[in-house]
Design brief:
single chain; 8-stranded mixed beta sheet; 5 helices; elongated
């Protein structure tokens, strides 16, 4: 059964804290507990354009390609082998990036108000079984993004990507957490 089963802790959280500018992202993962992740060896991107972007951010194709290169490097360091053809992959990856701007207005007195604007950046990494195409693992990261960070969006993307993928593959203890 799929369900948000754990939050990043320990070394993964410490890794991000070292690089965090002003806020620390949350990371949640959803795991198909019926899957034996030890059987997965090869991976490929789940679509010709595996990085989807929405909301109030712009990510160039160059940044998207560097993001894929970073993900490939992280997975290769974990012993997974990239393959060109999706049909040859044990698992497939898709990425979704987005940002949502919210505005809260508190009316203090007639003609006096307090306006608070917040931008939340989000990244999802979805991993699917290469044969069944069913989701087996989903990682999500979210954090408040400040204007100074939007100017260097690639750094934030790389940090979130690294933090999320530090949770993959799940260990047997992680797979059984509720």
């Amino acid at each position: 059964m799929l369900g948000w089963t754990r939050k990043a802790t320990g070394a993964a959280a410490a890794l991000f804290l070292l690089g965090a500018c002003e806020t620390t992202p949350t990371v949640d993962v959803e795991i198909d507990e019926a899957i034996d992740f030890d059987t997965y060896e090869t991976f490929a991107w789940g679509a010709d354009a595996p990085v989807q972007v929405g909301g109030e951010i712009y990510v160039s194709q160059f940044v998207a390609q560097r993001m894929l290169n970073t993900a490939s490097g992280i997975l290769s360091e974990k012993g997974f082998v990239p393959v060109e053809k999706r049909s040859d992959a044990d698992f497939l990856l898709l990425f979704t990036l987005g940002a949502v701007r919210t505005v809260d207005v508190d009316y203090i007195a007639p003609g006096l108000q307090d306006v608070d604007e917040d931008v939340r950046g989000r990244m999802f990494i979805e991993i699917f079984d290469g044969q069944t195409k069913k989701p087996i693992w989903i990682g999500k990261s979210e954090k408040e993004v400040y204007d100074s960070e939007i100017d260097n969006i690639e750094e934030g993307i790389t940090e979130a990507l690294t933090l999320i993928l530090s949770e993959f593959p799940p260990t047997p203890d992680e797979e059984s957490d509720e």
